[in-house]
Design goal:
By secondary structure, the chain is of the alpha/beta class. Helix content is 47%, strand content 12%. The protein contains 12 helices and 5 strands. α1 runs antiparallel to α2.
Length: 280
């Protein structure tokens, strides 16, 4: 316990439980001299140091302790480094200050659908947890032309290289897309993923930060997946999530009517698009 907490304990014992000060100090292991000592308001005692440090860090936000201390000495302040460092730590200036990640300006992405397979794929991540509390992530990929779910990768961690491998597997099955629509997540803006897309001549369409409506098709798919799978079951292992998800994806593509496709499931609508392309 801190001295102030011990002093408060002594006060409670003496005032509320009618214990003598001597016995209360012995129980709290606080000397009577410390109990009778007048309290000092540290905030007022260190007011000058606090104001001086705040004045410096308000301008020089990246300075460390010793630069601030040297600046105080240059300003004629005679406090020793121990006192200044104590106040410096109380102000939490010794903690690393993270700068906000700056994202490049993104053009607004329109939601015009090209009725052609593999024209635009949409990617997005989802988070959930197993029954034991272990966190899991999913990477969902759909084709915007017919809203078909091309695949869902599920793991505890999905770094950029795993994203690349998963997209490569989808390309082997469905063919290469002309463009990929995604948000500004660190895995999707990483050098590994952006360079891979550049090498394979795949356009990356990053939505504007904080504008999920510019990736509305995958966001609507995420809601359906969460309601019908993630929120509908309790999973004990990742293998259980994958098993249920695989069966659900098959039903979603082959059976489930989609209102935006005229109540046709994505697989039937894909056949319709392919037939229309053959006539052109």
């Amino acid at each position: 316990m801190t001295p102030s907490a011990k002093r408060e304990a002594v006060r409670i014992m003496t005032e509320e439980h009618q214990v003598s000060i001597k016995r209360a100090c012995q129980a709290a292991r606080l000397s009577r001299a410390a109990y009778y000592k007048p309290r000092v308001d540290r905030s007022e005692r260190d007011r000058e140091v606090v104001d001086a440090l705040n004045e410096i860090v308000a301008v020089e936000m990246r300075w460390g302790f010793w630069k601030c201390f040297d600046r105080l000495r240059a300003m004629g302040r005679t406090w020793n480094h121990k006192k200044v460092y104590r106040v410096y730590c109380q102000l939490r200036l010794n903690h690393q200050r993270r700068a906000k990640r700056r994202l490049p300006g993104r053009p607004r992405q329109s939601m015009i659908v090209v009725p052609q397979m593999n024209s635009v794929w949409a990617l997005d991540f989802m988070h959930d947890a197993l029954y034991c509390g272990r966190a899991i992530r999913t990477l969902n990929v759909i084709d915007e032309a017919n809203r078909e779910c091309l695949g869902i990768d599920i793991a505890t961690s999905i770094p950029a290289l795993r994203v690349v491998r998963f997209v490569e597997q989808l390309i082997e099955v469905h063919g290469k897309p002309k463009a990929i629509r995604c948000d500004n997540g660190p895995e999707l803006t990483s050098y590994a993923f952006t360079e891979w897309c550049k090498e394979h001549d795949i356009e990356l369409r990053f939505i504007q930060p904080g504008k999920p409506d510019q990736n509305a098709f995958i966001e609507r798919f995420n809601r359906t997946y969460r309601e019908e799978v993630l929120n509908a079951f309790l999973f004990d292992a990742i293998s259980d999530v994958r098993e249920v998800t695989d069966g659900w994806v098959e039903r979603y593509n082959e059976i489930r009517p989609h209102d935006a496709l005229g109540t046709l499931p994505p697989a039937r609508y894909r056949e319709k698009l392919i037939a229309a392309e053959a006539l052109l």
